């Protein structure tokens, strides 16, 4: 049971496994040989035909966007290489924050209900959504019938759509039906695509994404009675930390 639990925890989408044991078993002393290490399950490799289809969509799309989820936390450098090679803007889920430099011009930061409005607008207006290691939960999609209308229109015309890359086969198509579902590891997927994807200028699309960020910034209204909001505290802490890292050290003077 214990070996199987460790195997399940490391299989596909990794995570905790709950083991429920009777109290009398938990309080007994066990004598015997130590548990054998759990075997590491094989990492699924993406189908080459699917990769060819994804490449075709990436190279033909005019307004693509990368929607990165927790599945890329082990390969952030590959995500960055791919985004730069394809010249695509990147938005992330909460669990994928930090996998792509949020100070980079291609970053649209976190999307979803609690994320950036401009990231949500970009998702809705993109003709290709490249979801890597994400599961399309309701906090990021909102009303499914209204989700990604431009990508759906592009799918019908054969010039875009939704690509879903996931190491957990059951997640593909569970919430959103993708144009192309790729079962495999994110690192393998990105490694295969980086040398083959075409760099596109995408001047109009990237300029539009920049405008979305300028027109829909994170902002809040201060209370008239002078009480402090949570946003003010976070902003003050952020400014202080930035000052510490940008100000010259006394030793340097």
Nearest-integer average pLDDT: 91
Net shape: globular
Measured on Cα atoms, how large is the radius of gyration? 22 Å
How do the strands line up in the largest sheet? Answer: 3-2-1-4-5-6
Beta content comes to: 5-15%
Write up this protein.
The protein is α/β, with parallel strands linked by helices. It has helices spanning 2-9, 23-26, 48-60, 76-86, 117-125, 138-141, 149-156, 186-193, 203-215, 230-246, and strands spanning 64-68, 90-92, 107-110, 128-132, 161-166, 180-183. It has a six-stranded parallel beta sheet with strand order 3-2-1-4-5-6, with helices on both faces. The longest helix has 17 residues, at 230-246.
List keywords for this structure.
single chain; 253 residues; alpha/beta; six-stranded parallel β-sheet; 10 helices; 38% helix
Short description:
With 253 residues, the chain is α/β, with parallel strands linked by helices. It has helices at 2-9, 23-26, 48-60, 76-86, 117-125, 138-141, 149-156, 186-193, 203-215, 230-246, and strands at residues 64-68, 90-92, 107-110, 128-132, 161-166, 180-183. Strand 1, helix 4 and strand 2 form a beta-alpha-beta unit.
How do the strands and helices of this protein lay out in sequence?
Layout: H1 2-9, H2 23-26, H3 48-60, E1 64-68, H4 76-86, E2 90-92, E3 107-110, H5 117-125, E4 128-132, H6 138-141, H7 149-156, E5 161-166, E6 180-183, H8 186-193, H9 203-215, H10 230-246
Helix pairs in contact: 5-9
């Amino acid at each position: 049971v214990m070996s199987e639990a460790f195997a399940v925890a490391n299989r596909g989408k990794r995570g905790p496994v709950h083991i429920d044991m009777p109290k009398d078993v938990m309080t007994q002393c066990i004598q015997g040989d130590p548990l054998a290490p759990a075997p590491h399950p094989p990492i699924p490799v993406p189908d080459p035909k699917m990769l060819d289809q994804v490449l075709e969509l990436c190279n033909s799309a005019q307004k693509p966007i990368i929607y990165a989820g927790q599945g890329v936390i082990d390969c952030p450098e590959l995500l960055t290489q791919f985004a730069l090679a394809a010249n695509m803007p990147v938005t992330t889920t909460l669990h994928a924050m930090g996998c792509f430099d949020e100070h980079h011009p291609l970053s649209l930061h976190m999307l979803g209900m609690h994320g950036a409005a401009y990231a949500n607008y970009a998702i809705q207006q993109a003709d290709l959504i490249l979801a890597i290691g994400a599961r399309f939960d309701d906090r990021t999609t909102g009303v499914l019938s209204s989700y990604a209308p431009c990508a759906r229109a592009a799918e019908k015309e054969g010039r875009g759509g939704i690509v879903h890359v996931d190491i957990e086969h059951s997640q593909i198509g569970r919430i959103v039906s993708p144009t192309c579902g790729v079962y495999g590891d994110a690192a393998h997927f990105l490694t295969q695509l980086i040398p083959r994807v075409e760099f596109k200028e995408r001047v109009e699309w990237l300029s539009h994404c920049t405008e979305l960020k300028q027109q829909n910034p994170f902002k809040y209204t201060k209370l008239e009675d002078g009480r402090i909001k949570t946003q003010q505290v976070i902003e003050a802490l952020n400014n202080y930390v930035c000052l510490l890292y940008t100000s010259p050290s006394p030793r340097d003077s």
